[in-house]
Write a structure and sequence with these properties.
The protein is of the alpha+beta class and 155 residues long. It contains five helices and five strands; from the N terminus they run αβααββββαα. It has helices at 2-22, 44-52, 55-69, 110-129, 146-153, and strands at 26-30, 73-77, 93-96, 99-102, 106-109. α1 (2-22) packs across α3 (55-69).
Length: 155
C-alpha cells in the first residue's frame, strides 16, 4: 500500500508538472462501471490487477495538486470515445484490440484516438467555463512508438 501511494503521488505530480510547463488544463475521463464482472473478461489475473488499481485516489491527487498550482481540472464522460474517429467523427471499427480503423481517415492507435476525443470533450466544456486553452505540442522524443512519433510531428 505504501509503494502504491508513492507511485500515485509521483504520477499525479508528473501530470500536474507537465500541465504547468505547457500552460494546459487537465482533462480526466470519468471511468464508470470499470470493475463490473460482465465487462472484464480478460481473465482472473488481469481482473485482480484492474480491481486493485486506485483510479479514484489518482484522480483526487491530481485534482488537489492541480488546485494548489492553479490548474483547471475537468472530468468528462468516456462513453463512445474509442468508437468514433477523432478527425471526421464517424464511427469506426477495431480489427484488433489496439488498432482503430476509420473508413475515411485510415488507421490509428485506439487509445490515442479515444484520448483525443476525451480532450475534445474537455475543450468543449472548458469553453463553457470561460477558460482559454492552448493546445500543447507533444514532442517525438517522448514517444518511442513509431506511430505516435509520426502523429506528434503532424500539425
Amino acid at each position: 500500500r505504501r509503494i502504491t501511494n508513492d507511485i500515485i503521488h509521483n504520477v499525479s505530480r508528473n501530470i500536474v508538472n507537465r500541465a504547468i510547463e505547457t500552460n494546459a488544463l487537465i482533462v480526466l475521463g470519468h471511468i464508470k462501471h470499470l470493475r463490473k464482472k460482465k465487462q472484464n473478461t480478460m481473465g482472473r489475473k488481469f481482473n485482480r490487477k484492474l480491481a486493485g488499481f486506485q483510479y479514484y485516489k489518482l484522480a483526487q491527487y491530481i485534482k488537489y495538486k492541480a488546485a494548489l498550482a492553479g490548474i483547471k481540472v475537468i472530468e468528462v464522460s468516456e462513453a463512445w470515445t474509442s468508437q468514433y474517429c477523432k478527425i471526421c467523427c464517424q464511427k469506426g471499427t477495431r480489427k484488433i484490440q489496439g488498432l482503430f480503423q476509420c473508413q475515411t481517415c485510415g488507421e490509428d492507435n485506439a487509445d490515442r484516438n479515444a484520448a483525443y476525443n476525451i480532450a475534445k470533450r474537455g475543450l468543449g466544456q472548458a469553453s463553457n467555463l470561460g477558460a482559454t486553452v492552448d493546445m500543447p505540442r507533444t514532442f517525438p522524443s517522448v514517444d518511442r512508438n513509431t506511430m505516435m512519433r509520426k502523429e506528434a510531428t503532424v500539425f
